[in-house]
UniProtKB/TrEMBL annotation:
Pfam families with a match to the protein in the record: Lys
Protein name: lysozyme
GO biological process: defense response to bacterium; killing of cells of another organism
Keyword Signal set for record: yes
Signal peptide as annotated in the record: 1-26
Originating organism: Cacopsylla melanoneura
Annotated family: Belongs to the glycosyl hydrolase 22 family.
Entries under SMART domains matching the protein: LYZ1
């Protein structure tokens, strides 16, 4: 094989590899690990950490790159807290909507942007519905201390 053929083949492989979809890193957080992480975030009220851990458990089993199938309205939910792309993030195109983010940014093991967005969702929903957690349909499984305390039992955060 001539050096030119080797170079052409190498370039073809390189171009092909750059066109492959980017793989995102996934992480399934332990309950105490997530509680400790959230405790370090100023946008999360410490007394609400058990509820956040419960919601993440019910929404995604605490899997950071979870993406839902299409909902009845055609939207999808993204990341550990299942942030909806109808209101909060854009599934394609530039970053946008209320969290000013691309939904794919919620599907990796860095959940800092997820936490910033859910704090915004919580605040807006609290203003409109009186309880910020009502933005999540799974909140009905996480709405009392007896339902949420088991998620953080034995955790020090």
């Amino acid at each position: 094989m001539s050096p030119l053929s080797v170079l052409a083949a190498s370039l073809t492989v390189l171009i092909y590899c750059t066109m492959l979809p980017q793989q995102t890193e996934s992480k399934t957080f332990g309950e105490c690990e997530l509680a400790t992480y959230l405790a370090g975030k100023s946008v999360i009220n410490r007394s609400e950490i058990p509820t956040w851990v419960c919601i993440a458990s019910k929404e995604s089993t605490r899997n950071s790159n979870k993406k839902s199938p299409k909902n009845k309205n055609g939207s999808k939910d993204h990341g550990i807290f299942q942030i909806n792309d109808k209101y909060w993030c854009t599934d394609s195109g530039p970053a946008g909507l209320d969290c000013n983010a691309k939904c794919s940014s919620f599907e990796d093991d860095d959940i800092a942007d997820d936490v910033t967005c859910v704090a915004k969702i919580y605040k807006q929903t609290k203003r409109s519905k009186g309880d910020g957690f009502k933005a999540w349909s799974t909140y009905k499984f996480c709405d009392t201390p007896d339902k949420v305390n088991a998620f953080v039992k034995g955790c020090s955060y």
